[in-house]
Amino acid sequence: MSVNEKDLHSALKTFFGFSVFKGLQEPVIKSILSGKDTFVVMPTGGGKSLCYQLPALMQEGTAIVVSPLIALMKNQVDAIRGISDHDGVAHVLNSSLNKTEIKQVKQDITDGITKLLYVAPESLTKEENVEFLRSVKISFMAVDEAHCISEWGHDFRPEYRNLKSIIERIGDNIPIIGLTATATPKVQEDILKNLNIHDAKTFKASFNRPNLYYEVRPKTKNVDADIIRFVKKYEGKSGIVYCLSRKRVEELAQTLQVNGIKAVPYHAGLDAKTRAKHQDMFLMEDVDVVVATIAFGMGIDKPDVRFVIHHDIPKSIESYYQETGRAGRDGGEGYCLAFYAYKDIEKLEKFMSGKPVAEQEIGHALLQEVVGFAETSISRRKFILHYFGEEFDSETGEGAELDDNMRYPKKQLEAQDHVVLL
Ligand code: ADP
Ligand code: MG
Question: Does the keyword Plastid apply (predicted)?
Fold first, then answer.
């Protein structure tokens, strides 16, 4: 299908109410509409969903959207239904549906009403679903969160590995669209290989977050006091403090409270009601700080988070980037402060010791990158972007001066002294 610019913009306006495309959306959508396999790498919040939703709405047939989380699928389906006259325009196909509901979904697809069908990979493998989908018109298949296909990603899902063979059974020449916010070259290679879309048209947005300031400080036994001092400077502003363990989350939240800081804990060990309450308190600004494990953050969209502190260094650059990425979404200041001690790396290594060898090897390699990042004296932004396969000029690039190494370069002499002292 070929469309002109005007049609594309009016579809954007009609369906979503937006007047301009964000970033690379327009060329991505053109690529999809022309029937090409397409690969999209954009940071979180970049607007990936619209890249497949709009062409799905504009084309004949149904687009299959594979996504790992039922909650994410439901959100998207509700949003799409909100912009259409017919609820059947988007459906989820999963094990929670009863017979009548499944019949309705199939009817809407057969009638050509359904433009977007969201499925979890495990539902897609079901024989009866494959059989049914073979019999209807499919416009394309979008694989959202495509990094789930790779063991090098942060969220490996074995079921994602079967997608290519399933899609081949559903139909010949169905275009495949892979989308991810994981920019590491290894993960990308895995995606292209597993989906067998080596010739895909690839669109990659920059991962630079020019408004974030990166600092890594040595972690001493005074780390709590360091954190308190830092947070107090930001009184009345929102921030997140990440800790590795639930126990540490509880302790630190309490320590902050005792020191007059409005803080709440958040981790998967709290019941759902408490978690929801604490999250709301943060969003509504009844508290300034959430002390949390990595359970906190997925889908949190508070634009004015002013700082993200890592009490413990994360297990990969990828996680560090995602977690710090929750600061400064509005483009304003975002201070990313990580505390680092090599013994924390050893702790993380130890956690992995029970895992399969292949997994340990990957985990070890990822951790070595974290060590490199923590101990580097070059531009931290350059280090992160290089990890994601992106060139960055640490003199002239956007945000170049915003990290501890660039602002306070370690003097050659000091560095030498340091070596001698060791
Ligand atoms: P991603 O999946 O890349 O993390 P989303 O698809 O969830 O990002 O989109 C992030 C936000 O950007 C959403 O709130 C969405 O409504 C908004 N958005 C997407 N495209 C546009 C656009 N062209 N104009 C304005 N807002 C947009
Ligand atoms: Mg998304």
Answer: no
